Amino acid sequence: MSAEKFEKSKTIELRKKHVGPSCKIFFSHDPIKIVQAKGQYMYDEKGQCYLDCINNVAHVGHCHPDVVKAAAQQMELLNTNSRFLHDNLVFYAQRLQATLPEKLSVCYFVNSGSEANDLALRLARQYSGHKDIITLENAYHGHVSSLIDISPYKFHQLSDAEQNQFVHVAPSPDVYRGKYRADYSDPATAYANEVKAIIDTVHKKGGKIAAFIAESLQSCGGQVIPPVGYFQQVAKHVHKAGGLFIADEVQVGFGRVGTNFWAFQLQGEDFVPDIVTMGKPIGNGHPMSCVVTTREVAEAFMSSGMEYFNTFGGNPVSCAIGLAVLDVIVKEDLQGNALRVGQYLTNLLEKQKEKHPLIGDIRGCGLFVGVELVKDRLKLTPATAEAQEVIYKLKEQHILLSADGPHRNVLKFKPPMCFTMEDADLVVEKIDLILTGLYHIIAGTVLIAQMNEATCLV
Amino acid sequence: MSAEKFEKSKTIELRKKHVGPSCKIFFSHDPIKIVQAKGQYMYDEKGQCYLDCINNVAHVGHCHPDVVKAAAQQMELLNTNSRFLHDNLVFYAQRLQATLPEKLSVCYFVNSGSEANDLALRLARQYSGHKDIITLENAYHGHVSSLIDISPYKFHQLSDAEQNQFVHVAPSPDVYRGKYRADYSDPATAYANEVKAIIDTVHKKGGKIAAFIAESLQSCGGQVIPPVGYFQQVAKHVHKAGGLFIADEVQVGFGRVGTNFWAFQLQGEDFVPDIVTMGKPIGNGHPMSCVVTTREVAEAFMSSGMEYFNTFGGNPVSCAIGLAVLDVIVKEDLQGNALRVGQYLTNLLEKQKEKHPLIGDIRGCGLFVGVELVKDRLKLTPATAEAQEVIYKLKEQHILLSADGPHRNVLKFKPPMCFTMEDADLVVEKIDLILTGLYHIIAGTVLIAQMNEATCLV
């Protein structure tokens, strides 16, 4: 198929006719048609280039030739299900395991982050024999029914009656805007004690905790970095209640945080989750994902007698792609690049914070960075409309960035891992210009239509 | 990666170590390692060829060059999410729509049959504002939590307490072994009345029906072909209760039944479901699937205000693959081939039925055929061990077939659609020889281990 088959207006018309209206589009009043991409750049139908600061799925760079080659070669040879023995499956499982603490040794291959998190809940419930789940405020864990139940980011739109009685929401460990802030003596303990309090309440009502689930760094929830030591203490409380700790690495895994391969490792070597779920970047865009757990949990899951079969999960093509992604991360030192460029970007943004009162907080690890915009640095009044204005003005400059968080006022950086210092210079320079110009704009000119764009780029 | 990286024993060892033990393998005491496949043939690490009678996922033939080429070309160009405009998405939606009745016009692209059926339930519940689901005895609709709830094939292993109170099970419309058989005056009405009775009971208890869901032809449930007129009557009862009819075409769609492109069309032109879910064959092995519904249902889903976003669903590569599959079906007249070869195969099997008392029933449409083995044609005593023996003996002859159904006594044919009359001759000839030999085997020699193999090849 050629890069463009229809005029853009026809594409829009057909989309309106044949694609579910709940499936939103970026910049809906003037959407972008992308026909090609390479590395950290995307190209529209006119050949105009956009710098991509948001597509963490294209982890090793859009259309990486090594990944494309691995996929094509394996597709020519064999693509079948995991009920047949195949070396790609076991070699890939072995390679993934090698990136994790030793006790996380058993893999389940599935097709999406949603399938991974759903399976993680099943594993935890089967292992513990319990039903209740603790999730974090503003969390997003996926789009299937069981995950909307544990995603306040989604279910806050529902009535109380529609919310699942087995799900309990703990405060987001956000030391900027949350209940316990950076000036609090020990926010890690304070937030963990909140989880303990929920467990106690559940127990009093006769419930039992199956799992605590959290993204290792909250993404849609506003690029939140939990204080070090929080996960260890939560795990202690949850284990005592007979439950498991599920670390959702769907958005943040595979070296993005720079110092470590997995974001949960930022908490320290003494923290090991019971279940890790992976997704998005794992296949550089190919639909695949994985759940890794301990032998003990896997054996308990098997003891139910119910087989687990996933038609596409772990097929030789998906595994070949997964292996190629791991190889490119090492070969091109993308984790190191994330560390260096992430640090450079954060430093540039810190300087902007000194200059622009609108920037309330800069937080991040590697190439996972949030810039929280506030109208008042003491009251932390969310600068939601301003964040949208920045996103729209950047788009005019051919830079793709997004805003998220409960107040949709956090600019989110999660670019392909080949992002360079020059790219960082460019985007920060443009943000500087836009923020400078913003002081001259009357707040009312920001369109409501634009505010509605501030959806999560999960 | 070369075709084989490890010795087979090492592959088995690594699999035991790193892959969830709930993930079963074919012929577990002597599994097959497949390294290559083409058309309807699979090859092991020694180059031995197997005739594939079971992999409906490899719909247009394993590793079809047109599909591989379309995938590779699009992977080189662009693979990103559906928040950007892209022609492959809208063109594919348009092409899929053209195969369906006009009112089924709105598509949601997802990654697996499980994601599709989960979304179908969400659509039905949002549209109707109701919660209760009616499903069929022995049904299998997927592996995520919400679908195990509606899959008696899976949840019969659970205790009553673990079963979902909003799920109600109607008798399988099986005219061979079910409640109303071929000799019953009007089994379609009788089975539909059973659904009506469930609706009445639900209403009496204060519940409300969101949907009735059924595979258009039951696959794992034992290759069951519902009597014509059953779906129309069920739809009438369900609509009257404010619910929707979901036709699950994950196993049986895309021309497999020969006379029609969709299996629900076997019921007649006067039947149109409200939601159709697709999967397995849609991408010839690539992880993708689709839900199609009416404008009315789609608008109701949007009115909740909740966005639907699926990271990988509807990406340009998946859509390019989906388009290539549709093209090959037409170009190679695979629907016509399914009709002709399916009829030929069924005729050959009918002759076997005359010869072998063990064959109780032959049923099928196109290349979806079931052979039910019974020890007694009057009592219909399931010949479970014998079915397993046939499967194992066929494997020794390098033919891959499977057995399923609640009694695991139904031989299931669902080969790649390029299956030929010569292939049919070969497999039926081998079955003839095996069945002839079986009369001389003492029942006790059939290993329990082999009986445990009789899992669903979903």
TrEMBL record, chains A, B:
Q: Does the keyword ATP-binding apply?
A: no
Q: Where are the transmembrane segments?
A: none
According to its record, what are the GO cellular component terms? mitochondrion
Sorted keywords for this record are: Lyase, Mitochondrion, Pyridoxal phosphate
> Which family would the database say this protein is a member of?
Belongs to the class-III pyridoxal-phosphate-dependent aminotransferase family.
Protein name, entry field: Ethanolamine-phosphate phospho-lyase
Respond yes or no to whether keyword Mitochondrion is given for this record: yes
Reactions accelerated catalytically: phosphoethanolamine + H2O = acetaldehyde + NH4(+) + phosphate
Kindly list the places in or outside the cell where this protein is found, as annotated in its UniProt entry: Mitochondrion
Q: Which InterPro entries match?
A: Aminotrans_3 (IPR005814), Aminotrans_3_PPA_site (IPR049704), PyrdxlP-dep_Trfase (IPR015424), PyrdxlP-dep_Trfase_major (IPR015421), PyrdxlP-dep_Trfase_small (IPR015422)
The Swiss-Prot or TrEMBL record lists the needed cofactor(s) as: pyridoxal 5'-phosphate
Gene Ontology MF: a single term: transaminase activity
In terms of PANTHER family, this protein maps to:
ETHANOLAMINE-PHOSPHATE PHOSPHO-LYASE, PTHR45688
What Enzyme Commission number(s) does the record list for this chain? Answer: 4.2.3.2
> Oligomeric state and partners?
Homotetramer.
Which SUPFAM superfamilies did the record assign? Answer: PLP-dependent transferases (SSF53383)
What does the UniProt function comment say about this protein? Catalyzes the pyridoxal-phosphate-dependent breakdown of phosphoethanolamine, converting it to ammonia, inorganic phosphate and acetaldehyde.
**Pfam families from the entry?**
Aminotran_3
What gene, per UniProt, encodes this protein?
etnppl
